[in-house]
């Protein structure tokens, strides 16, 4: 710590003590409290408390703005300092935009992952529906074949019944159409009963 900054700090502490309401502003009391040794210790304590934070702040400021330069004056050096500051700000803005892009891409990747999970679930459902449709199609085909066989069997049975009826009717007609065994009758009878029994 340099001597001018110590003296300045001592003066500031002395001013604070003078303004404090507990002191009656008597110079004797202030000089006793604010003796060189006491002020030195107070200044050292304050510096150890705030110095690390100030150094860290200076380093961060140097990263953003750049190393401390001489005070800007009007002219080309001032313009150069402004241009440097602007370039550093642009660099910082680009870095922030890149971080934002990465964040958005990460979010999009999570959404895309969610979509893949949804697609996979729907694909599984689709496969289950396809399988069920195939099973139902097979059942329908088997039922159609069975119905066709039943229909053919019924038609065949109906045809057989029809043929049996026709055969029975034909037999009945044959039985009705045949007269009883002809007996020898006398040729002198004027009427013949065989003509009367013939079906018309």
**Helix percentage:** over 70%
Largest sheet: none
Oligomer: single chain
**Approximate strand percentage:** under 5%
Tally of helical runs: 5
Q: N-to-C terminal Cα separation, in Å?
A: 153 Å
Along the chain, the helix and strand elements come as: HHHHH
**Low-confidence sequence ranges:** none
Morphology: rod-shaped
Cα radius of gyration in angstroms: 62 Å
Average pLDDT metric: 77
Q: Report the strand count.
A: 0
Sheet/helix structural class: mainly alpha
Account of the 3D structure:
This protein has about 200 residues and is mostly helical. Among the domains are: about 5-70, no CATH class; about 70-145. Helices cover about 80% and strands about 0% of the residues. It has five helices and no strands. It has helices at about 5-20, 25-35, 35-65, 75-175, 195. Helix 1 (about 5-20) crosses helix 3. The longest helix is centred in the middle third of the chain and has 102 residues, at about 75-175.
Q: How would you summarize the topology of this molecule?
A:
Elements: H1 3-19, H2 27-33, H3 36-65, H4 76-177, H5 193-196
Briefly characterize the structure.
The protein has 200 residues and is mainly α. The protein is 80% helix and 0% strand.
Index terms:
200 residues; mainly alpha; 5 helices
